């Protein structure tokens, strides 16, 4: 299956740490890459364009000291509401960021800009229609954001979604949604994904920029504590019930209350309503990112060795 050539020999396991809003920063990215997974962050986590450019320079310089580290990536919101897209894209090109993950729009001009220096573009998709548009724009990979993923997630089961994507797209496929362990990374590969996409698990790491209360909620939560709603950002996603209640809102009435409009960011404490996926019940500790990557890699090796043994026994 098509793992990009630029990733070969640089991954401890076939996985990407997703860009997490207000969570992923330089320390998390660098330690994840040093641990053998692709580390990423949203451009908007740098609270200004200048701050974003400084982060790119810092991450690049730190990873240059570790040539065996995995590549890093940046998430760009490709939507007219992102007033910084043009200048942030220019910084990405100037720093030759190895991977760009695009969200909320697939634009050929963005893809071509990244391709101009040999970079890769992966695009978030929650249905086949979005995937077809992204493929037409020339992206290198599709990220299947399936049911149970944290943040802006879809509702499709990966058993259904991945085969549909493979039937229309020959490039790299990533699978996201409740993946916390190396065994689950191996399962994603068996399902037909080339790379696994882990998000919520990296909220609960020492290098994470997440508020301590956010980390605590992730450690305490179970799948039943996740609310799927469009009321937070205008796009349907999964959020921690406890954080919604702490903001003074009724988690069970968000979708039916006409007075709830959290998309008006200046009027609501939206930054304290935190996303997480259904896999929170499998997260029970707060390791360093490098320690977590080593654990995931060991679990992945054990799972793949076990699968190979079973396959040989069946022959």
Tell me briefly what this model is:
38% of the residues lie in helices and 15% in strands. By secondary structure, the protein is an alpha/beta fold. The strands form two sheets. The protein has an eight-stranded parallel β-sheet with strand order 1-8-7-6-5-4-3-2. It has a two-stranded antiparallel ribbon with strand order 9-10.
Question: Could you explain how this protein is built, in words?
Answer:
This protein has 315 residues and is α/β, with parallel strands linked by helices. It is built from eleven helices and ten strands. The protein has helices at 26-34, 49-64, 85-95, 108-115, 128-137, 158-168, 182-191, 200-203, 212-220, 241-246, 289-314, and strands at residues 15-17, 39-42, 72-77, 99-103, 120-125, 141-145, 172-176, 195-198, 226-229, 237-240. The strands form two sheets. The protein has an eight-stranded parallel beta sheet with strand order 1-8-7-6-5-4-3-2. Strands 9-10 form a two-stranded antiparallel sheet. α3 (85-95) links the parallel β3 (72-77) and β4 (99-103). α1 (26-34) packs parallel to α11 and α5 (128-137) packs parallel to α6. The protein starts with 14 loop residues before the first strand and ends with a helix.
């Amino acid at each position: 299956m098509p793992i990009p050539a630029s990733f070969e020999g640089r991954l401890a396991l076939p996985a990407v740490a997703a860009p997490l809003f207000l969570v992923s920063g330089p320390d998390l990215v660098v330690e994840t890459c040093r641990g053998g997974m692709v580390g990423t962050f949203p451009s908007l986590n740098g609270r200004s364009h200048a701050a974003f450019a400084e982060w790119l320079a810092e991450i690049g310089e730190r990873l240059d000291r570790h040539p065996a580290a995995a590549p890093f990536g940046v998430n760009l919101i490709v939507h007219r509401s992102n007033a910084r897209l043009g200048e942030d894209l220019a910084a990405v090109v100037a720093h030759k960021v190895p991977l760009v993950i695009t969200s909320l729009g697939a634009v050929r001009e963005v893809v071509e800009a990244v391709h101009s220096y040999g970079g890769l573009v992966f695009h978030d998709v929650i249905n086949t229609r979005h995937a077809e548009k992204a493929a037409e724009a020339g992206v290198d990979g599709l990220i299947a954001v399936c049911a149970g993923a944290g943040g802006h997630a879809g509702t499709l089961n990966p058993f259904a979604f991945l085969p549909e994507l493979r039937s229309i797209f020959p490039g790299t496929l990533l699978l996201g949604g409740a993946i916390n362990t190396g065994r689950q990374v191996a399962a994603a590969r068996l399902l037909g994904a080339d790379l696994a996409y882990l998000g919520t698990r990296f909220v609960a790491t020492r290098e994470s920029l997440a508020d301590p209360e956010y980390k605590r909620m992730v450690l305490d939560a179970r799948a039943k504590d996740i609310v799927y709603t469009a009321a937070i950002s205008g796009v349907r996603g999964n959020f921690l019930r406890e954080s919604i209640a702490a903001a003074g809102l009724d988690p069970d009435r968000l979708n039916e209350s006409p007075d709830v409009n959290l998309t008006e960011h200046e009027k609501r404490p939206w930054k304290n309503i935190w996303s997480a996926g259904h896999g929170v019940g499998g997260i029970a500790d707060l390791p360093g990112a490098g320690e977590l990557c080593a654990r995931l890699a060991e679990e992945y090796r054990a799972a793949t060795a076990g699968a190979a043994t079973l396959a040989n026994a069946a022959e």
